[in-house]
Amino acid sequence: MERPRPRVRGRLSVVSVFDPWGSPLCTCPPKYSLNPYTGCSHFCLYCYATAYIGVRPSTPKRGFRERLLRDLPRLDPRFHIDVSTSSDPYPPEEERLRLTRWALSVLLPRGFRVLVITKGSLVARDVDLLSRGNAAVTITVTTMDRGLAARLEPGAPPPRERIRAMERLNAEGVPVGLRLDPIFPFLTDDPDSMREVLEAARSAGARFVVVSTFKARPDGLRRMVEAFPELEERYRRLYRVEGRWQSGYWYLPLPLRRRIIEDARRLALSLGYEFATCREGLAHLHTAPTCDGSHLIPRRVQSPRLSLKAEPPHGKPET
Asked: Is domain 15-217+254-296 classified as CATH 3.20.20.70?
């Protein structure tokens, strides 16, 4: 049976109906997507969005505030909003520009359900808003090895900072989940590496994890083998020769993907996680109600302390 889609009353400007490019492997529930920025200053080697926009730093969307306010009456409140799906909402620029914080100050007091997806430890700054609204946060940690993380995600905060952000959010009542996503063969797929991430996040309060293997677009694969030349031959063989091109990505061979995912699942369940995968075709392994973590979003009674007045804008004009 076809899943319901969010209704839109009129044309949206900056919010969009989430569409995973028609991938038959996507099991996400129907939802909206909101990206305050274009580009991403975390500069992750494996970023899929660079295939569309190139490698460039986080830039505020032109007219973002006015466009979001215009979109709000057109949204179907039954569906939650992902912030963000293609550009991290907490890049370094957010500390000064506070664009994501402004968006939360608009969305949450109006009762919208929000799922924040980030590698940015700065998300903990906004715990005052998140803890009083219908919000949950999933934080990506691919490895606890600071040196390896700096090579994979050169502009993102170190893994321990992300774990500390989880701790603070959890302490203030914000539900948190982990994205162990993606997992890289021969870099982060050994059980000890995965266990280290899973244990750190679980101790910080995460109760849900979604995992996936590295799915390669041409530019991401090129960056990966340039950064890790010792993997070039194996990666090209696994992805280009033995792997499969599907929905715009090269996938690892299914037996290898299944082995990695099943190892992660075994470790996660032993630690008490709810478990899901992302676009792997292995939904039968899920124990979580949703694959994206949106089931973590609470339905809070509106707090009188959370004003309906949006925070004033900060930083330079948008470009």
From this structure: yes
